[in-house]
Amino acid sequence: MAPESLGQIFVGTLLSNNFVLAMFLGLCPFLGVSARINTALPMGAATTFVIMVASLCAFGLNWLVTTFHLEFLRLISYIVIIASAVQLVEMFLKKNSPALFRALGIYLPLITTNCAVLGVALFQTAREYSFLQAMTFSFAGGAGFTLALLLMAGLRERLNFSSVPNVVQGTALSLMLAGLLSLAFMGFAGLGAGE
Amino acid sequence: MSEQATPTAAPEAPATPSAAMIRTLGLVATICGVLIVSSYEGTLDAVNANKKIALERAVFQVIPGAAKVEEYYATSAGIQPATGPTPEGGAKFYAAYDKAGAIKGIAAEGASKGYADVVRVLFAYDPAKQVINGIGVISMRETPGIGDKIYTDKAFLKNFEALDVKLAADMKTLANAVKVVKHGTKQNAWEIDAISGATVTSKAVGRGINESAQKLLPLLVPNLDKLGSK
Amino acid sequence: MALPGQKQPSNMEEFLEGIWKQNPTFVMVLGMCPTLAVTVSAMNAISMGLATTFVLVASCLLVSTVRNIVPPQVRIATYILIIATFVTVVDYAIQAISLAVYDALGAFIQLIVVNCIILGRAEAHAAKNPPVRAAINAVGMGIGFTIGLFALGGVREVLGAGKLFGISLFGPDFQPWVVMVLPPGGFFVLASWLLLFNWLNSRKTRADRIETVGGHVHGA
User: Fold this and answer.
1) Per-residue pLDDT tens digits for A69-99
2) SS3 B122
3) Residue A189 falls within a domain, yes or no?
4) Inter-chain contact C184–A183, Cβ cutoff 8 Å?
C-alpha cells in the first residue's frame, strides 16, 4: 500500500501529474482527436471507461499472477485483457449507440494501443496501490486525459481563425500548444502535498 | 465458405476455420511461452545479483564500514528473516554487519509525498546511541535545482548526523516525534532544519523518516539482542 | 512495400526507408509516448531506442516466419502476443544488464508493447514479406527511431543539464535551462525538430518545383 492518501492521488493525477501533459501517456489520440470539442468529449469518456475497466482487471490479474508466482506472464495477461475489454466496449457501443460508434470511428479500436490504458495498469502495479487507491488513480487519470483533450480542442478550434505560418501547421503546432498547456499545469505542482 | 491459410506442405487441412485459428494461436503461444520462460530463468540469477548489489550500495553509503547486509522484518512477535511478503503490522529493515561479523548498524526506508511525487529515503540507525546518523535518497522526482538539494545541501545533511529518535518510557512511540522546522530555527536534537526554498521536499523527508521510525523502532529496539552476529 | 508490377525495392532501400523517408519520429510521428518521456538524457534515449529496435526486429522476424499459417481473423491477436513476448524478454534482459538503466526507463520499457510503430510495421510490412527483408526494414526503422530519440535526448540534456552522456560540457557556472528536462521541454523540443523538418521539406519541394518550371521565377 503506497503512502499517498486518496485525495492526494486524485488531485495529483488529475492536475499535477496529468496523464497527457506530465506523464506523456495517451499522446497519439491526444494529437489525433483533439481538433473539435464534440469529438473530444466522447473520446475522453470512452477512454476513461476503458481505463477504469483495465485498472480493475489489472488489479485482479496482478493478485492472481503474484499468488501463483507467474510474474513473467503479467505483461501478456494485461495486454490481452485490455484488448478484450476494448472489443467488448466496441460491441456494446455498436449495439446501443451506433451514432457514437460511427463518430469515434477508427479511434475506438485504437484505444487498445493507447499508452494510457496499459500505463495505468503498469503504474498502479509498480506503486503497489490498494484497490481504492487504484480506482481513484484510474478515474483521475481518465478525467485528466479528458480535461487535457478538451482544453486542446478548444485551443485548436480558436486557432482555426488565426493565420498560422504553413511550416508550423499540423503536428508541430499541436505539440507547441501541448507544451504551453504542460507548462501551465506545472503551476499545480505541490497541490495536496501534506503538512 | 471456410477460409483456410495453410502452407502447401501441410499434410492435412483443418476441417474448420476455428481449428486453424486455435492451432495457430496454440503454436504461437507455445513459442512465446518457451521464449518468456527461458529468458526469465536465464536472467534470474543476474537480476537478483544486481538487486543485491544496488541494495548493498545504498546501505553501505549510509553505514560506512559495513560489509554485509541482511533483510529482516520486525514484528510484535520478534525478528524474522525477510522472505516472502511483509507480515501484518511488521516493518522491514536492513541489518549491516562489518567484516568481522559484528553488527554495524540498522538501515530502513521511509517514504512520503513531496512536491511532485513520493520521496524515498534510506536512513541509518545507531542502536547504541538511539540516533539516526545518516541518510541517503533512494528516489525522488522533485524539481531539479530546488528539491534535489536534499542530495547536496551540506547544512541539511548535517541534520542527520545525530537525529534523536530515542523511544519514550513506554517503548511504544518515539519520545519526541521527528519534526521539520523552518530553516534556521532548529533547537532540539529531534528537529530537522528545512532547506530554505525547498520546504515541501524537506518536510517530505522528515515525514517519511518519522512515520518509518515510529513504526519500526518500538518493534525493533526490544528485540535488538536477537540480531546477534553473522 | 512494393505494389504488384513495381520493382521490388533493394535491400539497401528497405534499410534506408526507416531512417529518412519514413522516419517514425519525424515523418510518421508515431511512438510519441516514449519519445517524450524518456529523452531527458542522451543515454536513456539510446537505451530506449535499442530496446525498441530489438523488439521490433525480433517481432517482425517471428511474424514474418509465421505469416503464412496465421488466419486473418486472429492476426492482430497473434501479433500482440508475439510483441508482448519480446517486450517481456527485453524487460528481463535490461534488468540483468543494468539496474540503473532499468530504473531510469521505468514503466516505459513495458509500454513498448503498445508502441504503434511495432504493430504498424508488423501489419503493414512483416506480414507480407519474407523474413530477411522484414528484418532489414525493421532494423532501418529501429535505427531511425533511435536517431529521433537521440536528437531529442541530446538537445534536452545539453540545454537542460549542461551535459551530454553525463559529461559536463559547460563547466560549473552554467545555468541550465531546467524546463528542457521537464515535460513541457519535451513538447517544445519535439515541436522544434518537426518545424525544422517541415521547413527543410518545404524548401526542397519549392526548389524541385522551380527546377521543373524552368528556372524563371519573378519575385518569389
Assistant:
1) 888 888 889 988 888 888 888 888 888 888 8
2) strand
3) no
4) yes
Q: Residue B97 in contact with residue B230, Cβ under 8 Å?
A: yes
Please report whether residue A194 resides in a domain: no
Does A43 reside within a domain?
yes
Nearest to B115 by CA among B145, B160, B157, B152: B145
Rounded CA gap, B106 and B128, in Å?
Answer: 11
Residue range(s) defining the domain that contains residue A71:
7-181
Enumerate helices (H) and strands (E) in chain A, giving the number of each: 8, 0
CA distance B168 to chain A (A): 24
Could you tell me the pLDDT band of residue C47, with boundaries at 50, 70 and 90?
very high
- How many of the other CB atoms lie within 10 Å of CB of A6? 14
The structural domain count of chain A equals 1
Given a contact as 3+ CB pairs under 8 Å, which chains touch B?
A, C
Query: pTM value?
Result: 0.81
- Judged by a CB distance cut-off of 8 A, whether residue A192 touches chain B is yes
**What span, in angstroms and rounded, lies between the C-alpha atoms of C157 and C163?**
6
Handedness of CA A15, A171, C27, C115 (dihedral sign): positive
Test C92 with B7 for CB contact under 8 angstroms: no
> Using CB atoms, which residue from C70, C86, C96 is nearest to B5?
C70
CB A144 within 8 A of CB A158: no
User: Which comes out higher in pLDDT, residue B21 or B39?
Assistant: B39
- Spatial separation of the C-alpha atoms in residues A1 and C27, rounded to whole Å: 43
End-to-end CA gap in chain B = 74
Rounded (10°) angle between helices C42-65 and C131-161? 170
Q: Which residue has the cell 489525433?
A: A32
**Mean of the pLDDT values across residues B170-196?**
84
Instruction: Give the C-alpha separation, C184 to C50, whole Å.
Output: 25
Q: How far apart are CA A120 and CA A96, in angstroms?
A: 27
| Residue of A3, A72, A193 with shortest CB distance to B36 | A72
Query: Which chain B residues contact residue C128 at CB under 8 A?
Result: none
Tell me how far apart the alpha carbons of residues B114 and B201 are, in angstroms, rounded to a whole number. Answer: 5
Instruction: Count the neighbouring beta carbons within 10 Å of the beta carbon of residue B95.
Output: 24
Say how far apart CA C124 and CA C105 lie, in whole Å. 28
User: Which backbone phi and psi does C68 adopt, to 5 degrees?
Assistant: -85, -15
Is B113 within 8 Å of A3 when comparing Cβ atoms?
A: yes
